[in-house]
């Protein structure tokens, strides 16, 4: 693979020593086909072992390595370095408290996911073998079910930046996934949860979430359907 000289700027922050985040530059000669995660590994393993970031599967499945790269929320493991010209600027996901460097506090994010009850709620007996759904019924939730909970969509949402109590796109998408699941009996409870001043009506259809989603989920479309469902069940 061809080598090229690149300037990598990373927003660094150590709560034990820094009053606020600051930029640190690294000038490296790198293989042009590396991913951003490979670049971070190169820095962490060979130059600066104090650099903190999350990673796990390297396959765009776990969502651990979501971060802001040259102004976009992306997964570092699937983003090639050659996508960018010139300096590459890497920051933690915006909208979340920074724990250290590129690691953000996701506790609030996952508590919001928990609030919408992200599991099947059953009032009927569990079938001996399996629940039966038609292909059409499953198609209503197929795409929403591919969410990997990386937080990229929620982090990109201006409504969340202005109101940290807003459930956010990921939690609302998760509620959609179960409210529209024909096997589930918990729709009434979830509709009550999302029909709130910090729920679905805080979505202003800005589309940032769709642009940020690494799985290309049509989040805004599903949240619009969720609004209609809430109205149908509350009027």
Task: List descriptors.
Ubiquitin-like (UB roll); single chain; five-stranded mixed β-sheet; Fumarate Reductase Iron-sulfur Protein, Chain B, domain 2; 2 domains; 7 strands
Task: Please tell me about this protein's structure.
The chain is α+β, with helices and mostly antiparallel strands and 235 residues long. The protein has 2 domains: 3-104, Ubiquitin-like (UB roll) (Roll), CATH 3.10.20; 107-234, Alpha-helical ferredoxin (Fumarate Reductase Iron-sulfur Protein, Chain B, domain 2, Orthogonal Bundle). The chain is 33% helix and 16% strand. The chain is built from 9 helices and 7 strands, in the order ββαβββββαααααααα. The protein has helices at residues 36-46, 107-115, 135-142, 152-155, 158-162, 168-179, 187-194, 208-212, 219-234; strands spanning 3-12, 22-31, 66-69, 72-75, 88-91, 98-100, 103-104. The strands form 2 sheets. A 5-stranded mixed β-sheet has the order 2-1-5-3-4. Strands 6-7 form a two-stranded antiparallel ribbon. The protein is elongated and about 60 Å long. The termini are far apart.
